[in-house]
Amino acid sequence: MENQLYIIISISVAFLFFMGTIIILAKKNVFSSNTSAGAKKMNIKSNDKYDNLIKEVEKLKTELESYQIQNEELIGKINELEEHVTALKKQKNLLLENKRKLENLQKEKDDLFATVVHDIKNPASAIQGFVKLLESYDTTAQDQHEIMEGLFNTSNRIIRLVEDVTKVLEADREMTEIVFTEFQMNDIVDVVCSRYSGVIKSKDLSLKVNKAHDLPIGMMDDNKIDHVIDNLINNAIKFSPPKTEIEIKTCKEGKYIVVEVKDNGYGLNQEDLARAFEKGGKLSNRPTAGESSTGLGLWIVKRIVEEHHGRVWVKSSKGFGSTFAFRIPIKHEEILEVA
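^ thats the sequence. predicted structure below, dont judge the formating
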């Protein structure tokens, strides 16, 4: 429509220029003749044509002005439509972003519930172990003190799991949010080992803790790293036969803190190694005391360690036990470099 208007306007301007030239020539009697009669006739005809041309010019001017007004109105409407289209695009992008956030939040809630349902069974098993020890009549005062301390730590663990659920349900923050603080890895190991002291004794196992004395303080979410070590130790306890040893070790390797949990169980075959950290990936071995196994524990470990920009791995061979380990960067600078 705009192109047609521009063509009409151009033709009109050219026509006006042509007619103006004719009028000027007419005024200068360029078309006059030596014959008087002929001159009069031509003057009459010229005057008539001149009047008609003037009328046509005026008509064209009016039409041109009308087209210009219509053109301006069309341009205004086009600009309004473009603004509406831009606004609709923004609303569409906003809706898509909200949809993505809702989908992510739902996935995080699903993962959280799977994690909590799994992890809440670990402290519940620990409580059972402490209760069994309390039922025995040969516990010393020191044993009773350790049991009470273990029960206290375990109950705190359950409370923290419930708080995690509450935070997500209230949408205070996303599940995957990591709160980095300076924390000593050895302190987390001590708390988790104390939590499982009753279960270890009830299954007639021994626990060897080999902590590096010069282990630096690292940047980590201590609550989530507690999840990791808790799951690794619980996993080692479940798959260890009686009268065997479980060893947990901490050390520093370059810019990383490393934690290893070694058991002397039945070991893993190649298929187990391939799916060890998959969600729901159950291993071929069965827990030695009939404990339940959901296949979520090692997946939770991998997920949390990767949130810390770390790495998990397992070393094992059938019949010779397994060593599950992870490492995370010591400082926030290393975390940023890895990210």
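Residues 30-35, 170-175 have pLDDT under 50 and may be disordered.
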